[in-house]
Amino acid sequence: MNLREYISKIYSDNTDYSKPEHAINQAESLKSLSRDLYTDSKRFIYELLQNADDSAFPEKKVKVCIRFFDSQLVICHSGQPFSNRDLRGLCSVNDGTKKNSIEKTGYKGIGFKAVFGQSNRVIIFTNKEYFRFDENYPFEWKKSWGNSQQNWEHENDRVFSFPWQIIPIPTRIDEIKKNINEFLVFNNWNVATIISLQNKNTIFNAVTNLIKNVNMFLFLKNIEDIEFVTDRSYKITLNRNNNKISIEENGTPKVEWLSCSKKILIPNDVRLQIEKEQNLPDKLKDAPDIEITLAAKIRDKQLASLSSGEQLLYSYLPTDEKRYTLPVLVNTSFLTSANREALHENSAWNQWIFETIALELYQWIAELVKGEFEYQAYNLLPKKISIYDALSEKFNSGIEKALESIPFIISSTGELPKRDEAIVDFTFLSEKRFIGSEKIKENDYPLLHLN
């Protein structure tokens, strides 16, 4: 079955309700999901960027363009076109293609619905075909429901509507603005989302804000550049070279990061705890390990702790969590709220991750201090989080465990003792001949010199 035929099939399936009450209840649920849940005007752009990032062909990077055409916003990419399975996921809730794939960054199956918080008419272009989701489309009233929609609405004191957000409508090329169609075809874009904006100024400001905050794109796995066309053109390029990531705007370096990614085995005791977590997706419960990435800012060629306002937690795209004052950015598979803006504090999964972050940060510092950055690594030493909640408590516990178990302090001989195994010579007497370092180190503890 080709894509156009499958679009027609889903249209038929998703309008086939035995009672009008079933249709309107589904419609109201989807309205709440899109408009009440996703209040951040940038969130739908994040979701579409994540979809683009997950669409990469094997061994190929993805290009993205975000461009305004009057009151329409076009977000397009060079990744894989939609399959029939992708279309099915798009026209459903929690039936997306990512829910069982640990390699994919999404899992909730509702991310695309964020776009309906900003628009009541969204067109999709893929495989050289168009289809749309349109609140104002004249869906047919079924005769089996009653004589007329007007009578039903009067009798039930309720305005009828279909769940248009999951009903794909085949769309002809002549229904698309000519300049948009030419742009997509001429530039060989594989997938595009064309959004008729209800409030262009709000979205324009949101896009402008994204351009200014290029770190938002740091942990996307497969996107290599994003072109923004607003009142002028901006091109954000992500250069990944081993463990360094540099971000450029129009060819000019904007920021550089040093990153460290580790696969962390999920302990058996954590597995037992998360079995009871209903919000945690099966693909995380069943995973043997997860990846945690730490990113340290390089400022003036020096490793630097993050400033206030920079301290974000990422689940591949940024959450809105700014309460946790960490010296580095952290990206991993956090369990987030449905709108992906907050973390579940009482989740055993998130609590284990927070403790692990502290341990891995000290382990990374131990590696860095013996490399090119040497003592700069200590700029990344974390402080205990002062707010009181379960996640902070676990992070602070992780710091204590790290101080007891991880050798990270560089000694005068290049050794790495643990905190309680080191002697700091504040007197500098170890440098004097009449005493010397051996006398001070008679307990066999490594000696630290102050620089």
From TrEMBL:
InterPro entries: Auxin_embryo_med (IPR052957), HATPase_C_sf (IPR036890)
Alphabetical list of Gene3D superfamilies matching this protein: Histidine kinase-like ATPase, C-terminal domain
Cross-referenced NCBIfam families: P_loop_sacsin
Protein name per its UniProtKB record: ATP-binding protein
Organism in which the protein naturally occurs: termite gut metagenome
